[in-house]
Structures are given as structure tokens and as C-alpha cells.
Amino acid sequence: MGLVQNTIKWLLGRDMPDDVAHIEQERQRRIEQMLIPTWEEGEKGPRMLLNMGPQHPSTHGVLRLFLELDGETVVRVEPDIGYLHTGIEKTFEHKKYEQGVTLTPRLDYLSNMFNTWCFCMAVEKLLEIEIPPRAEYARVILGELQRIASHLVWLGTHALDIGALSVFLYCFREREMILDIFEMVSGARMMASYFRPGGLAWDLPNGFEEAVTNFIELFPERVDNYERLLTDNPIWKERTQGVGVIDTETALSLSVTGPILRATGLAWDLRKTMPYSVYPEFEFDVPVGSRGDVYDRYRVRVQEMRESVRIVRQALEKLPGGPFRVDNHKVAPPPKEEIYLSMEALIHHFKLWTEGMRVPAGEAYAWVESPRGEMGFYVVSDGSARPYRVHMRAPSFANLQAMPHMAEGSLVADLIAIIASLDPVLGEIDR
Amino acid sequence: MADTPAESTTQADSPAMRVRETFPEAVEAVHHRLGEATVVLKADALPEVARWLREEQHFELCVDVTAVDFWPQEPRFHVVYHLLSVSRRQRLRLKVPVGGKRPTVPSVTAVWPGANFYEREVFDMFGITFEGHPNLKRILMPEDWEGHPLRKDFPLGYEPVQFTHNVDEIERKKPYAKQ
Question: What is the CATH number of domain A88-128+131-325+360-430?
Fold first, then answer.
């Protein structure tokens, strides 16, 4: 006897009439599919089906989890996503390639540079163009700063979820410096859209190098401070060590990439293993863990911030002058001065901003190592100015699949640590 | 369209060529374009090829599963699999053409459990059924949504937003919504 049937019997003094029996059937179906929370009798007393999120602050956005609990132990977890679905892939098909650039930062809003970078790489692959070295170096510098900014949000909120408030304040203080650099470069703190197919939107501004130098001089010391607060902190260790363990083989079979995969001990970093852009020119290490638990993911990401500083320092030293976008005016607009003097430049300018760039028919998959793992863009072109199909391979989407494996059998409190260590961004999960 | 033949150079050492050698009757075409290897496969051979790719060719990671709608052409859909071999540092793309009437593809979740969410997404967005999937239901759209948004015949924009309370009203105003 279900709850509804009991209530109706109590109200009417008789069994449920046949014409409302479908309500109970529908309710049972929803319980089976974990669509609504309810109570059920289990073997060890009542088992609770509990709804966590989508407004819960520790779910980092609008992640909704269905938990089946036996006491405080998590028996089953099922993520329910889609609350932030905005149909970006559909919108892409109706926008020109230049307009598509402004959609990309909205995916993973904490590492927007990587999304735009990846989309530009896919379009450049279809166009078969090489972008000038200054643009490549600028992309690497801004990308690595973005990685630090993204990891700072992760570290701050992770510590906050477990109860260490002050780390959050320190992390956001440093992140603000990076966002200031982004604002200086692109005019926007988060939705930069600064990379364009063929190079950059405009040249790096005056004072950019000083601002970045200031930051990388200051930052390693600040990382030491975070580590002093957390790395040997017994409470932090107690809450993170041995929690949410996953091994390399399971991680690979569940399509997990990024720091979570590296924390299991596999040094798989696309910047090293399948290099793109100018990464082969830099010296840096790929930090790996050994146990694959929440603590190892913490260690890996903190080390990655240090490695990013190393890459930024080298890239800043080598930052070449010269053009910041390709000289191909079918792809990138001609300089404004030329428009006043040259007929061809004026025509190209006009054609480019009215019709858009035409990308040869074909398909391309480009990838970057984003702070969360492999970010991929699959672009199919039919030769027109609008992409026929754009699909994003979002790292958080795949990484989320590993969560039930990590969380089942653990405590509810550990689940909070596990979600934080996955570092999901719902913008790219739901797209 | 994406299938217009371009330069299709054969690369002897590519995993795509090995697929063709091992499964000659299952492979419809092999391309190498823009440095990417693509194998066009028949749908019914997919589980066998997938298992062989994972176990013999070390494609441990199913990076991505998606689909492309070529409506009104036939076969209407291409289901696209991006695979990655971590130990050999190779990538491979599998494409499976499916017809528009009752599109069905065998699921690869038994080979790569990571394909689970991706196949649900393709089911949600394109209405392609994956046979043998353990939990095939909508993932991004609401459970009671009608239609598959990423199909090319699904309208975009200038449409009232569909909620549970106004479905009837939308359908009354828009006779083509069900097509």
C-alpha cells in the first residue's frame, strides 16, 4: 500500500477508486526512476530517498542529486542535470562563426578562455591556417592565468564546503588580480571572448606585461600560504584522505580526464601528451597523485597552479612582437587604417561583417587541456558562414559520471567533499 | 555537406586502416582529413568493433559520443564516436550512419561505461535509441518534453517557451509542432 492509497482510504473510508489508480501508478514509476523523494522500508530500517540540490550551495550551481541513504551511508546517487540547459549547441547552428565566439565563454564560465581557445582551434583547423606566434603566446599566458583563476575558485569553495572559510577569502583576493588582467585585455572580467578564429580580437594592451609580472612574482608565495593552511592540517586530511577513491582503470572507463585522472597516478595531460599550440616550447611538470582520493586531487591542482606560473613566466619572457592575427582578410578583418586607403580592404571589411567568414566544408575535432580535463569542440561545416553542427565535449559532464562510483558507500558529509573535488561547472554540463 | 569527398589520403599505420583490414565488410569508408582518422561503420557491427578497439587496440577512453542530423537526406543521422588511446596516444573517430525512421544504434556502454551520459544526451537531443543502454532516459531536457531539440526540423526562436502548463495552448497555435 502506497502513501497516496493510504491517504485516500483514510479520507474516503474505502479503497481507492479505479479512476485514480493511475495516480498511484505514476507515483510508483516516478519513485522507481528517482524523480521524487520518498521513504521506503529497507533491510536495515527505513531507507530514505533524499533530494540534494539544485539550490544547495555545496552542489556548485544547479546540480541536483538523488540520494538513497541507509542511515548516514549513501547507497545510491543519481545526478539529475539540465537545470541550466540553454541550448548553446542549437544556437551555434544559427550564428555566424564570429558570433559563435561570444557563446563559448558561457559554457564553462570559470575557465572561459579555454572554451574560446578550443573553438578557435577547431575553426582554424578547418580553415587550415596557422596563427601568428604572438597570438599563440598570448593565448598560452591568458590560458594559464585562467587555469590559476579557475583552480582558485575550486580551492576556495572546496575549503568553504568543508568548513575552512578564510581560504575562500584569500583565493578570491588573488583571483581578482587575474580578473583585472582579463578586464584590461578584453574589457570583460569573465566573458572575455578575446580569442578569435585567426588570432586575437585586438593586440595586448600597454601595461599587460607589468600586470602579469606583478602577479607571477606575488603568487607563488600566496600558494605557500594556502598550503600552510591546508596541506598538513589534520582536519583537512581527516576529511579528504581516503575519501572518494577512484583507480586509473575505472577513471578511464568512465571517460574521466583532467586532475581527477592525474590524481590516480596517470600523467595524462594533453599539453604534454598530445601537444597543441606552443606548449612543446615550455618546461613544466605534470603533477600526479597516487591514491586517487580527494586529498590527491587537492595536491594535484595546487601543484598545477605552481606549474602554470612557470609556464606564464617562460611565455612572458619569450612573448614575440609582430601581428596578433592572421593576414588573411577572408578570416580576420583588415586593420582600420587600411580601410580608408585601400578598396580591397574596404570590401573585405564589408563582406566579413555582413556575410561572415566562409569555412570550408568538413569536420574537425580540437582539444585543449582545460582546468577540468579534456575540453573538445567538434565542428561540422557545410561551407557556409554558419556552422552546420557544433558539439562541445565538456569535461565536467563526463567527470560527473564518476561521482556515483566515488560516493556510493561513503557518508553524506564525504559526498560534499567529493562534489567539491570534482569541481563541476554546471554551465558546461548542461550547455 | 560533411561527406563531400575531399583528399582521402591513406595512412598505412593508422588505426582506421587496421579497422578496415580486420572488419572489411563492416567498414563503409575510411578518411584521413585534417590529421584526423575517421571510420564509417555499419551500425550492427558497432559492438564487435568497439570491443576489438578497446581490447586489442587500446582505445581505453571514449572521449565523446554525439550525432549530426543531415535532414532531409538519408541516412539522416550520423552518430559520431571520438575515441582516444592513452597508451598509444592516438585518436580515432567512428561514424555510424542511421536512417531517419526509428533510428537505432547498439549501445557501447558495455564496452565503455563512460558513454552512458553521452548516449543519453544523444537520445534526448536527437531521439536516437541506443539498444542495450542500462538507463536510457532524457538527461538535459525535462522528462515530459516533446520533440528532440537538436534535430534540424525542430524550430528555433520566436516560439513560446514550453512549460507543463501551456503545452495545449502552444499546440493549438502551432499546427506543425507535432511534425
Answer: 1.10.645.10
Question: Mean pLDDT lowest for which of A1-10, A377-386, B25-34?
Answer: A1-10
CATH homologous superfamily of B15-146: NADH:ubiquinone oxidoreductase Nqo5 subunit (3.30.460.80)
- Other beta carbons less than 10 A from residue A181's beta carbon: 22
Let me know if A319 is exposed, middle or buried by CB neighbors in 10 A (0-12, 13-18, 19+): middle
C-alpha span between A398 and A419 (Å, rounded): 14
> Within a 10 A sphere around the Cβ of A143, how many other Cβ atoms?
26
Spatial distance between the Cα atoms of A293 and B66, rounded to a whole number of angstroms? 31
Nearest-5° Cα angle at A330, A326 to A336: 70
Give me the residue from B2, B82, B115 closest to A362, CB to CB. B2
- Interface confidence, given as ipTM, is 0.83
A147-A148-A151-A156 Cα dihedral, nearest 10 degrees: -150
pLDDT in tens, B40-68: 998 888 999 999 988 888 888 899 999 99
Q: Are A393 and B141 within 8 A, CB to CB?
A: no
Element (H, E) at A10: helix A3-12
User: What is d(CA A115, CA A388) in angstroms, rounded to the nearest whole number?
Assistant: 19
Which single residue is written with the C-alpha cell 565566439? Answer: A101
Taking the CA of residue A85 and the nearest CA in chain B, the distance in Å comes to 6
The C-alpha cell at A372 is 577540468
Tell me the C-alpha distance between A137 and B34, whole Å.
23
Residues in B closer than 8 angstroms to A254, CB to CB, are 113-114
